[in-house]
Automatic annotation (TrEMBL), chain A:
This is DUF3526 domain-containing protein. The chain crosses the membrane at residues 21-39, 125-148, 168-201, 213-234, 241-259, 453-473. InterPro entries: DUF3526. PANTHER family: ABC TRANSPORTER PERMEASE (PTHR43471), ABC TRANSPORTER PERMEASE PROTEIN NOSY-RELATED (PTHR43471:SF1). Keywords: Membrane, Transmembrane, Transmembrane helix.
UniProtKB/TrEMBL annotation, chain B:
InterPro entries: DUF3526. Keywords: Membrane, Transmembrane, Transmembrane helix. The chain crosses the membrane at residues 20-38, 131-150, 171-199, 205-228, 235-253. It comes from Salinimonas profundi. It comes from the Bacteria. This is DUF3526 domain-containing protein. The keyword Ion transport does not apply.
Length: 477, 421
């Protein structure tokens, strides 16, 4: 039995070697995958260098600032850049669509700026030369051209009956043909595997890298099964080809976009501006970090006076302005974080609707699995925003502590009087070392694999259903 | 060729189940794209309306809270936006990546204008299905399925020779059959579009223009399919050839062109623009006021003699150094913008090799949803920011006492005004 399968598989390969169309397809597929791996690798290395360079430049310029009033440094602010995870060189995911830098300052959570897509030629509106795109969209098409006639050909030529008479079961025939197509798929994916190995050298986790390759293989095996199934079920080469192309159009081009439109229409996620305005409305009740006399601040003043048992804020051992700044930053951040979480929640809600369409289209499922494993999905972007926010809050509050503890209220209030008074209300530049080095660390490997399980189970279930149908067809026909 | 021939071929085509199915799919997709496109545009309009209301409320609160031009200029944001055009429902364009709304205040603009308030990136990655996509990317595949086996299928059905012998004129058969197929597909796609266009208030001229462009585009692909279908080979080989041409022009050429263009046109990194601007603005705090004011006067000579300051902090000095910071980074910011423009323009040449991209660029241009429209909006924001500055400068530099009534004349963002006025 197994020998028959191998013979059939080898025979199919021999057929491909003789057919100019099939040879052309194999060569095109291999060179496309190889080119995409190379091109994306090169451009990602450039990007990574630039962002790392910008990051260290931002850190240096912060730490090189002269002696100053600490609140000046709160507004001087800091830039953080999002580095690309190693597997991002194979699947950049949403990297080009999201901003890759955030300006961190007091009293505000800025959005990420500088999306690469805004600087692009606009030619990548439906395609991009990334390994992910080539493997997810183009490779299935090439598998179709390679395999649409695998069974119909035998049927049209009448060799199918001949094989049956010789005692070759249809199931064995299907297994052999399927084996041939899967080996072709694995061959097409070799440049991807080399790319993954390079990423592992660059620090990608072995487990997620393996899962990455495995999920792409799973995807290609699903397509091999689809090709085989249609070729088995229909009568002629022509209808097999048309049917498969229709399935490809539907699952790779139409359903993902229908899913995207549907998610956008069902869940309304207000943008940053609208959220900002909603925040402002809520903030008017909280008090401003620059304003000492608001109602919220007077309650704090009373409690401080009571705590230190003094009559006026001037007699406090700490600078009351600095205390106000600390407290209001803390209150403000609570509100900002609440809204930020809400916004992330809405975006994730949209993405989840989108991901459910993975039950209909294996392309959506592999795209998700791939982005999740490569750490270039929405959740990892949100993780970046959260890490940036933590960095922001830390350095702003350290500066506010300096503001409260390293000068008196009198010095602080008189800072614009003259140059001597200005000098008195500064702290030493040594303090700017409070800034810790920022480097974005994506979700842990374990977390990423867990997150990808939903998409991978969509793929597995689809493969199971296809194999069951195939074996059913193999027995009946 | 007469009506009898047309009727015969039309009836023949309609009697084929696969052709009817493909036409129905085309109609459904066109309806879906027009419907969701219209919903998207309605959402954008509603968002703008909500923003206008909330913005007004916020501005009112700020105006009540402060009694000083400096503070008011600092805390007052102004909403700017680019409303979607009537045709935008059919070509959603790059509005999911390029911002079409900003809130601007009188601080240095370079620190504000690169912010992006965009949609869910994961949905943007999948792309939206709009009428442009249905026509540019999807319709060639439908034509492929409809036309590639025109002759091959008749050969397979052993009718080919019979048909060739009995036709009265060489135009009576294949060109007629192909022509009717294209016309039917065109109707299937364009009727939902026209309905959507009328609903969204697109002008009749533009509707006709788009309809003719779509017809021309379909005809181009139909000619290719027709020409390939004459080759004496099996249907799948013919389809593979057309598919190859589609894959090459629609996917491979644009994405390869993008790689080359990105490599060839290099400008400053956006981060450099932002950080240079920040340094310029922040350094001013430690510079003597005269230095900043001298730099400011170079481009604003009308305030000469009014730039002396009495305290270490004065609002006129504060806004002067914001402006000087912008001016200092201007060459870099322009180079950054120029890189994007160069890339987009060069892409126009690449688009000549990619009909789908050419169509997409044309439709998004008509719909004002392309990158060019986004830059025009940016220019409008820049000129509005300038208006705002020139409104506040007299109040600040002339040391005018605060009067709430003066704010009545404060400029409002006007979406209609041209950026170069």
């Amino acid at each position: 039995m197994s020998k028959t399968i191998l013979i059939i598989a080898r025979d199919e390969w021999r057929y491909w070697q003789r057919s100019r169309l099939s040879l052309a397809v194999l060569i095109i597929a291999l060179s496309l995958v190889a080119a995409s791996v190379w091109v994306t690798k090169v451009s990602n290395t450039d990007n990574a260098h630039q962002r790392a360079h910008m990051q260290s430049q931002a850190e240096h310029s912060f730490k090189d600032q002269p002696d100053r009033h600490p609140h000046r440094m709160v507004h001087y602010g800091h830039y953080v850049f999002r580095s690309l995870p190693p597997l991002g060189a194979l699947d950049p995911g949403i990297d080009a669509l999201t901003g890759n830098a955030i300006f961190l300052e007091g009293h505000r959570q800025n959005s990420a700026t500088l999306a690469d897509k805004k600087q692009s030629s606009g030619l990548t509106w439906i395609s991009s030369l990334t390994p992910a795109f080539v493997m997810q969209i183009i490779a299935p098409l090439l598998l179709i051209i390679l395999g649409f006639s695998m069974v119909t050909r035998e049927r049209e030529a009448g060799t199918l009956d001949f094989l049956k008479v010789q005692g070759v079961s249809l199931l064995a025939l299907l297994a052999g043909k399927g084996l041939a197509l899967v080996t072709a798929a694995v061959l097409i994916s070799t440049p991807l595997i080399i790319g993954v190995m390079i990423s592992v050298i660059n620090g990608a986790g072995l487990l997620s890298a393996t899962a990455f390759i495995a999920s792409y293989w799973l995807y290609l095996i699903i397509w091999s099964a689809i090709v085989l199934l249609i070729s088995t079920l229909v009568r002629t080469n022509a209808s097999s080809f048309s049917g498969l192309i229709a399935i490809w159009i539907l699952t790779c081009l139409i359903i993902p976009r229908v899913a995207s439109n549907t998610a956008g229409v069902i869940v309304h996620a207000p943008g940053k501006l609208e959220t900002d305005l909603a925040i402002l409305r809520q903030l008017r009740e909280i008090g401003d970090g620059h304003n000492m006399s608001s109602r919220a601040n007077s309650a704090m003043r009373d409690s401080l006076l009571a705590k230190y048992n003094v009559k006026s804020v001037d007699a406090l051992p700490v600078n009351f302005k600095g205390i106000v700044a600390q407290q209001s930053e803390a209150d403000l951040t609570k509100v900002l974080n609440k809204f930020a979480r809400q916004q992330m929640h809405q975006q994730t809600g949209q993405a989840e609707i989108f991901r459910y369409f993975g039950w209909l289209s294996p392309m959506i499922a592999i795209q998700n699995a791939s982005m999740k494993l490569a750490a270039t999905d929405l959740e990892n972007y949100h993780e970046f925003l959260q890490q940036a926010e933590t960095a922001r809050y830390d350095f702003v509050q350290s500066l506010n502590r300096l503001h409260a503890e390293n000068m008196t209220l009198e010095q602080d209030s008189n800072k614009y009087r003259n140059d001597v008074a200005k000098k008195a209300a500064t702290v030493s530049a040594d303090n700017w070392q409070i800034l810790s080095d920022f480097s974005f660390s994506p979700l842990s490997e374990k977390q990423r694999i867990t997150n990808s399980l939903f998409a991978i189970s969509q793929l597995l279930l689809m493969l199971g259903a296809l194999l069951a149908t195939l074996s059913f067809a193999g027995k009946r026909l | 060729m007469n009506w009898i021939d047309i009727r015969r071929e039309a009836l023949f085509l309609i009697s084929k189940k696969s052709i009817v199915a493909l036409l129905i799919i085309a109609t459904l997709l066109s309806i879906f794209s027009v419907w969701t496109g219209s919903v998207e545009i309605a959402q954008q309009r509603a968002t703008i309306q909500r923003l206008i209301d909330a913005d007004e409320l916020d501005r009112k609160a700020v105006t009540e809270q402060y009694h000083d031009y400096g503070y008011i200029a600092y805390y007052t944001f102004h909403l700017t936006y680019a409303p979607p055009s009537p045709l935008a429902f059919a070509a959603l364009g790059v509005r999911d990546v390029y911002p079409w709304k900003h809130r601007i205040r009188m601080l240095a603009l370079e620190g504000q204008i690169h912010e992006s308030d965009t949609q869910n990136p994961e949905l943007a990655l999948a792309g939206k299905i709009d009428f442009t996509f249905v026509v540019a990317v999807f319709s060639p595949l439908l034509l492929l399925l409809l036309l590639h086996d025109m002759r091959a299928s008749e050969r397979a059905a052993s009718r080919y020779d019979f048909l060739m012998v009995t036709r009265r004129h060489r135009y009576n058969l294949w060109p007629l059959r192909a022509g009717i197929t294209v016309a039917l597909l065109w109707l299937a796609l364009i009727i939902p579009f026209i309905a959507g266009a009328l609903f969204n208030g697109v002008t009749v001229g533009l509707i006709i223009l788009v309809s003719l462009t779509v017809a021309a585009y379909l005809s181009g692909w139909a000619v290719l399919c027709y020409w390939v279908s004459r080759i004496h080979a099996s249907a799948p080989v013919l389809a593979s050839l057309i598919l190859g041409a589609w894959l090459l022009t629609t996917f491979i050429i644009p994405s390869a062109g993008n790689v080359i263009i990105d490599k060839y046109y290099n400008g400053p990194h956006g981060g450099a623009v932002l950080m240079t601007q920040r340094e310029a603005v922040n350094d001013a705090w430690d510079l003597p006021h005269e230095t900043t004011m001298a730099a400011f006067l170079e481009n604003h000579p009308q305030w000469a003699g009014k730039t002396d300051t009495n305290s270490l902090f004065e609002w006129k000095w504060y806004y002067a150094f914001q402006q000087v910071g912008d001016e200092k980074v201007q060459p870099l910011a322009e180079a950054y913008q120029q890189t994007a423009k160069d890339r987009y323009e060069t892409a126009g040449w690449v688009a000549l090799l990619s009909p789908a991209t050419l169509l997409q660029r044309q439709l998004t241009q008509w719909a004002d949803t392309d990158a060019t429209a986004a830059w025009q909006y940016n220019d409008k924001v820049r000129s509005f920011h300038a208006e705002l500055r020139h409104f506040y400068y007299p109040l600040l530099f002339n040391d005018k006492d605060f009067e709430k009534a003066a704010l009545q004349k404060r400029p409002e963002f006007d979406t209609v005004k041209k950026s170069d006025e």
